[in-house]
């Protein structure tokens, strides 16, 4: 059943009012696409990706993004980061900007595909994404646009955002806290590159730091590329929260990364029938240091064995939509995760 709009808005407003001085992260339910709203301790806003455009069988993600932002008292998006140009991440940015002003756009540069693939379905998909990219390109030129590279930082008042990957490249030197040899690398071979998934591996991946709190978001980087961030040395170090790449699809899951970063919490921005692959579950669940996995949706294919307990799932059946997951982080490294569906929350203490 759909959530009650009034209760949804009141809960969000209350949570936002209590969040001063914290780093707030909202994993918005965009049905297996991606959109994450971040409010810095200094009140600056960042939106990572814009979910899906409208289609005959799916509502536009813009409506959910705007509703959440407005309920939180957010009047504009200071920084819009489009991690890459697949349709479930690029969404409809011009429509979003018409409803919620966007001050600046960050991305990896230009849309890319694999011209060697002679497949009618692939070519049709690429044609649609190219058309959507042209509309996006006009908007980003109008509002202001920055191409980011590995090693760059994106200003976010009160916190730090480091770019770990972009345009198919990754950082070559460790960030603060990283650099230790990763013994997991010898246990697992590098996974194969998927030639049709060009844009996935161009994703802008970022590390968010607020005091002692650290959150990793690698967008849709697949396992072939994520290995470069942790092998032979773990250039990232430990994190507290890992927003799992590629919606938890198995093509993004590299054990050598999951086992090296010692995340206490993993977030799955999945849909009921996209992401959160059953094959991913045992790999993620076995990662050292992990306490809990929180999911946007119950994964139908996973059944009871490859899903979190219901308190940790924002949308638990096929007719339920729009509930979100909130992470509220303190500068001492402690943080609280809340499920908007039932207000269940759990606080995680800072690492020693």
Low-confidence stretches: 1-18
Overall number of strands: 19
Rounded to an integer, what's the Rg over CA atoms? Answer: 19 Å
CATH H-level superfamily? Ribonuclease Z/Hydroxyacylglutathione hydrolase-like
| Integer tally of domains | 1
Class from secondary-structure proportions: alpha/beta
Let me know the largest β-sheet: 9 strands, mixed
By CATH reckoning, the class would read Alpha Beta
Please trace the helix and strand order, writing H or E for each element: HEEEHEHHEHEEEEEEHEEHEHEEEEE
Sum up the overall morphology in one term: globular
Tally the helices.
8
Please, could you describe this protein's structure?
With 352 residues, this protein is an alpha/beta fold. The chain has one domain: Ribonuclease Z/Hydroxyacylglutathione hydrolase-like (Metallo-beta-lactamase, Chain A). Helices cover 22% and strands 23% of the residues. It has eight helices and 19 strands. The protein has helices at residues 5-17, 61-71, 87-90, 93-99, 120-143, 223-230, 255-258, 280-285; strands at residues 23-27, 36-39, 45-48, 77-81, 102-107, 145-147, 160-166, 169-170, 180-181, 205-210, 213-217, 233-234, 241-243, 265-268, 292-297, 313-315, 325-329, 335-339, 345-348. The strands form three sheets. The chain has a nine-stranded mixed sheet with strand order 6-5-4-3-2-1-17-18-19. An eight-stranded mixed sheet has the order 8-7-10-11-13-14-15-16. A two-stranded antiparallel ribbon has the order 9-12. Helix 7 links the parallel strand 13 and strand 14 (265-268).
List keywords for this structure.
352 residues; nine-stranded mixed beta sheet; disordered N terminus; alpha/beta; Metallo-beta-lactamase, Chain A
